[in-house]
Amino acid sequence: MTVQLTDHQINEFKMKLNDRFMALRREISAELLHTDEEQYVDLAGRVHDSGEVALADLLVDIELASIDRHVQEIRDIDAALMRIAVSSYGECCDCQEPIAIERLTAYPTAKRCIGCQEAHDRTFAHGGQPKL
Ligand SMILES: [Zn+2]
Question: Do residues 114 and 103 lie in contact, with contact meaning Cβ atoms separated by under 8 Å?
């Protein structure tokens, strides 16, 4: 059986997600600094007032293949922080059951319980078509 997260636990995940978000932002800034100094200054200025709109702009602007992975992770973190904001964090997006805390600890951005994730992976992984 899984249990609903307490406010305290949610706060800990929120801090963890924010830390990772900051670290990623620094990594992306460093990578951009390598590729284009002017763009970095522009980006850094906008990231500074990190509202959601600014973040959306940032994500649209970032198209460098080398940082795609980081951008994807930032999106996942952003989505997880949004779920915290609307109090649906830790709830499976498919079956609405609570996600096991062990799973959230390992993957704070998890949006599915392990059962639904495995079903999802079976359906979409390996390029296979869903069976009728
Ligand atoms: Zn589920």
Answer: yes
Any idea what DSSP says for residue 92? -
**8 Å CB contact between 2 and 97:** yes
pLDDT of residue 20: 95
Give me ligand 1 centre to Cα 91, in Å.
Answer: 8
| DSSP-assigned letters across all residues of 9-41 | HHHHHHHHHHHHHHHHHHHHHHHHHHH-HHHHH
Which pLDDT value is given to residue 2?
Answer: 55
Beta bridge partners of 91: 98
Instruction: Calculate how far, in angstroms, residue 69's C-alpha sits from the geometric centre of ligand 1.
Output: 25
**pLDDT score of 117 more than 80:** yes
